[in-house]
Amino acid sequence: MTIRTRFAPSPTGFLHIGGARTALFSWAFARRNGGKFVLRIEDTDAERSTAESVAAILESMKWLGLDWDEGPIHQMQRLARYRELAEQLIAQGHAYRCWATKAELDTMREAQRARGEKPRYDGRWRPERARAAGLVPPKDVPPVVRFRSPETGEVTFEDLIKGPITVANAELDDLVLLRADGVPTYNFGVVVDDLDMAITHVIRGDDHVNNTPRQAHIFHALGARLPAFAHVPMILGADGERLSKRHGAVSVMQYREEGFLPEALVNYLARLGWSHGDEEVFPVAKFVEWFDLGHVSRSPAQFNPEKARWINQQHLRQASDDRLAALVEPALRALGAEPKSGPPLARVVALLKDRSDTARHLAEAARMFYVYEKPSAAAVSELLNAKTRPALKMLQAKLAESDWDRKSLTAATSAVLKATGLKMPELAMPARLLVTGRTQTPSLDAVLELLGRETVLARLAHHLDAD
Q1: DSSP codes, 439-450
Q2: What is the spatial order of strands in the sheet that 144-147 belongs to?
Q3: pTM above the 0.85 mark?
Q4: HSE-CB for 54 with a 13 A CA cutoff
Q5: I need a surface site. Which of 178, 244, 308, 364 has the fewest CB within 10 A?
Q6: What contacts 159, CB < 8 A, 6 or more positions away?
Q7: How far apart, in Å, do the first and last CA atoms of the chain sit?
Q8: Alpha carbon distances (Å) from 372 to 156, 342, 356
Q9: Pick the CATH number of 373-467 from 1.10.760.10, 3.50.50.60, 1.10.287.1080, 1.10.10.350
Q10: Distance between CA atoms of 147 and 145, rounded to whole angstroms?
């Protein structure tokens, strides 16, 4: 048997963290087992589905590296198939047409609530009940198609994460399969699609557990075997509430805009509810090699933006300087800097990447090499005093005579420290301020080397030769 999984987003918005993790687990399971991964677009919500959302979802999947083998398949292009199988179920006695109006259904449910009962459709248009009640189909009401749910017994399915789940059939009413306009409801569309696309494993969020008994009945009525189900626990915020934007659960593409690497976000998503020993940071290939449903937790995962940034930082450190430079370049321009106006960006990135957790952060740090923001007079006055000014003048002279490499620049700095008795922070902090406009930078010798002799000496002269 060829393993076949699917990801079936509704195109009513962007791809968010929860959906991305579902897609990742489904993709990885197929890849690990030499199977196929199908992308399906569940676009039957005509009012909310948009082409823009479809494009955003596809772009997000491509950026994450979640390639699909078949699709994207759009449900709205398969309406004839849903109608065909609905008619088949009617002919076999597993479904029937229902002419109950919205007003009638509302009245029915209000009466049930008043009696302390669970609101549910009462099956009044089941053919035998309609005949007994003398109901005649109204000509001005388009019917829906409802599934004839078993009223006794129970339905059981094996969940590969949660274990066996059993639900009493008495808890289920006759759900709508086709709306009056011929568009399938979620539960019917999912079953027909999974059947036609030969899906063997349905990996999805556990908010769908309650849908599964109904879907199991439809599979059985169509004479089909159930796929294997694996319901992945929800992702919660640090406060234990359902994940939302206030927890940092924004769209996948916003993480790209913030400077996350796709493999880092995949790494973090993989660790939300799944683990492999004590491994925290790993490449995508290793995740595919290790992934199995047996190590998916039954408990909800907690989303931690700080942990996501930490994992991204580890991947940034491992990324090539040229790749990072290509990512940082447009971000630098957005910050008003021209990368061609200073040292080679790859060298700047190499110096700064260990101190940055996103490419955007890296660009902000790199900006000082391309845009000089003169420090305020107050800041200069605070750091230039009777001890530091002579020391900086001495450093200025030694740098002017020095070879411009880190070894020579370090030697010049050390000589000034030895001659003046200053500690490194007392010299380095004002020196950084004068040449970069900042007091916090990487190693002073490395910064001086990258800025270049002409730039460094000109900036020192501006502040030290004014008197």
Answers
A1: S--S-HHHHHHH
A2: 95-98, 144-147, 176-178
A3: yes
A4: 17
A5: 244
A6: 165, 209, 212, 229, 230, 231
A7: 84
A8: 69, 11, 20
A9: 1.10.10.350
A10: 7
CATH superfamily label, 79-232: HUPs (3.40.50.620)
For the chain, the structural domain boundaries read 79-232, 373-467
Contact of 236 with 243, CB cutoff 8 Å: yes
Catalytic residue among 36, 139, 162, 245: 245
CB 370 within 8 A of CB 341: yes
Give pLDDT tens digits along the chain (467 positions): 899 999 999 999 899 999 999 999 999 999 999 999 999 999 999 889 999 999 999 999 999 999 999 999 999 999 999 999 999 999 999 999 999 999 999 999 999 999 999 999 999 999 999 999 999 999 999 999 999 999 999 999 999 999 999 999 999 999 999 999 999 999 999 999 999 999 999 999 999 999 999 999 999 999 999 999 999 999 988 788 887 766 666 789 999 999 999 999 999 999 999 999 889 999 999 999 999 999 999 999 999 999 999 999 999 999 999 999 999 999 999 999 999 999 999 999 999 999 999 999 999 999 999 999 999 999 999 999 999 999 999 999 999 999 999 999 999 999 999 999 999 999 999 999 999 999 999 999 999 999 999 999 999 999 998 65
User: Which segments of 3-62 are extended strands (E)?
Assistant: 4-7, 36-41
The span from the CA of 305 to the CA of 310, in Å, is 9
Tell me: cis bond preceding 72? Omega within 30 of 0 counts: yes
Would you call 162 a catalytic residue per the annotation? no
